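tool=predict chain=A
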Amino acid sequence: MSQETLVKRQFGHRARLALSPAGVVKTDDQAHAARTLWNLLHAWWQMMPKQERTLANADAAIRQAREDIGFLAVLPAQAAQAVLKTYFRAWKNCWDGRAAAPNFKGRFRTVMSVDIPQGRDLNIVRVHRRWGQVNIPKVGRVRFRWTKDLPVGKRAGADNRITGARLIKDVLGWHIAFRVQSLEPRPDPHQGPDVGIDVGVTVPIALSDGETYEHGEWLTEKEQARLLHLEQSAARRKRHRKPGERTSRRLHRTYDQIAGLRAKAKRRALDWQHQTTTAIARTYGTVVVEALTITNMVKSAKGTVEEPGKNVARKSGLNRSISQEAWGRTVTMLTYKSAQLGGSLVKVPAPGTSRRCSACGVTTPGSRESQAVFVCKNPDCGWSGNADHNAARNVLHLYRMGLALIPAAGRAVVRRAKRVKPAAAR
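tool=predict ok
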């Protein structure tokens, strides 16, 4: 097979670790050391003059901190270098307008993680069908769930290998996310039809050909009742706690149970999104979506003291529903899955797609009678149908009229004007 027919692909694979109690303590210590190192690096950045904020000076500061602060020594040297590179990359993303400025990481609101930059340090071995073993620096050999074949041993090579990993802790415990690089055949162009997609809250995904993808509640009635009981119990205990009093173990245990139920709901939502986006990417050659600025759509409506907002509670509920549907994550999944199967994803301007009649092309006030019903008020048309289906047809129409946006894929972010520089960089 020629080199032109091959394409290099990088993806991640996450597996659950089976750490011993002592291993959990060591890994927790490494994660806290990595978070502390990030905060020290951020404080150093703010104190130093602009001309002295160089990678070499930051590296020297990190080495000195590891010598002066004893508990930072539990973090491997390569993991400390990874913190440094990630911090500088965060500032670059900020200056390019792709993300907000980096900030201090709190103890309880930060995802605990440790990076293992070098894949050769892992020494992965498959024990049997369900389990493998991996070497974690300063922790030792640890078993992990083998759910996908990895390029290790004779299967590994220059083009198919594991380049590194990252340890991540969530409600279920510690996981390891392998970074895999592979060389795969370039997919043939997808011969499927074009489709427009309209995303919503009541109907999560509506296609221009009339197909819809819906889901129910992520938690059962019993689980929802359990979650409500735990949240009320936590709020009651927190309300009766004296100022300055430490959180009790019972309250911490309640918080853990709440986090467990919310994590279960998120896993079910992710599973539904993966199955839905895979089915769409396999069926259609070109997927057309709206270029939504989701960060602006979920802004609060409370206003200011001088000019208070209206329908604040209703807008808060809408913002919560939009965030739960995770439209941006759906678009991200469709982007890479379509590319892997030879298709493409295109974005078109969003304004007017829900008010325009897809049959006659006229926008008439009052045509959208309700969330689900669209009746064209144009006397020469009178078309009626599902409102989400009508919006999806308008999305596809914009693409066929040549109104696609470039670049087509990516996460919607608020970009800073070119002439404005971040205050922290001055």
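The first helix runs from residue 21 to 47. The chain has nine helices and 14 strands.
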